[in-house]
Each structure stands twice: as structure tokens, then as C-alpha cells.
Description:
By secondary structure, this protein is an all-alpha fold. It has one domain. It has helices at residues 10-83, 87-114, 116-121, 127-140, 144-159, 163-176, 178-184, 198-226. Helix 1 crosses helix 4 and helix 1 (10-83) crosses helix 7 (178-184).
Amino acid sequence: FKVKNFKLEKKLILAIFAIGMSPFSMQIAASIVQVISNNALRSYGGDLAIGAMTIISSITMIILMPIFGLNQGVQPIIGYNYGAKKYDRVKEAIKYPQIAALIIATIGFLMVELIPGVLVKSFNSDPHLLSITKYGMRIFLSMIIFVGPQIIRTNYFSCIGKAKKSMFLSLLRQVILLIPCIIILPLIPLPNGETLGLTGVWLAGPTSDFISVIITNFIFKHEIKKLDNPNSEDGEVMGEAI
């Protein structure tokens, strides 16, 4: 064992950085979104609205944490079988986590819609905060059922080494779509002369979720089809390092 025998391979290092850029970008993006979101919430709903979003974000994480766990568990399975060109196993490995994620997200959705008060009271029992949080949470998380499988599908691209697509899809829902929605939707005028205001901020969540789910599904299905024809020109399935 000698240190001098260890050499860094540029291609391998770049591949590692490329795959890690997706979660890294999400962490940076989350901070940016939080700043923009807090400014919008303060403008349209004051400190109570910020407190409500904090609770909603915590409940969202509780719902999604098991799905993130599924991602971590399935990643080496997909990566190994993809590298071994066992594409039937890859399709099996991506199928069942999606079903599990859908079940988890559905349970979370039902809890949010049916017993929001119970969830919110676990964090704060102030009646004013409770009221605004229940209303906002039911709107903001109304598309969470479809977000569960989307998270698994986004992670698939990271598993097979397609870092660019993984990063794009990761940023799509939380940044590329969400930020414009937070800024634009509250300004939409209503028939009574007012604007959507705080309701527009809550609507930013399901709006960005809906659009990103459609885009993710389109890209994912196109990628999965390549596994059926791995040797064709259009069916080239080798991952891209960067």
C-alpha cells in the first residue's frame, strides 16, 4: 500500500461531480426559493403566512422522506443492472418503487385533505395560524399524489449516469417552474377587482407540480423505450458522464 500508487482519473472525477450536482443544485435552489417564497408570503399574508408555509414544508418533508429513502435504496440496484446491460431488471427495479411512492403519496394526500387540523396542531395550535395553514396546505399539496412517482423517475436519470437530465428535472419543479408561479400567480386579477394574492402563492405549488409531472413523464417514457432497443441508433442507452 503506497500513496503514490493512487492516481486521480479526470474522467471518473468529472462523472462523480456530475452525478452529485443534482442534489447539490437542489440544496442551493431550495435556499433561493425560500427567500422568494418568504417575500411573497410576507407581502400577501404577513408573518402568519410565513409560519403557515413553514408548517406545510415540514409536513411535506414528512410525507416525502420515505420516498427519498426508496430513492437511496433503489439507486445501486438500477445502477448495477444498467451497467451490466440487464435492462429487464432495470425496468423491474424502477417499477416497484414508483408504485410504493404512489401509495405513500396517496396516504399523505388523504391525510392532508381529510385531517389537516390534526397535522397542523402537531406543530402549533394557534387558531389563526391553524386556519390559514389548513387552507394553504390543502391547495399547496393538492398534486402531491403525482409528485411521489415523479421523484423516483427523476432519480432514475441519476442512477444511469445521465446527470444533465437528472439535474434539469430536479430543478424543474422546485425552481424553474415554482419561482415564476410564486411571482406571477398572486398578481392574477379577480372579477371583483382584487388579485389572487396569498391564494396565488398557494396555487404555485400544484401548478408547478402539474407541469413538471407532465414533462418528467414524457422524458422518462422516452428514456425507458430505449431499453427495449438498446442496439438501435435511437435506442443508445449508455449513460452520459457529464
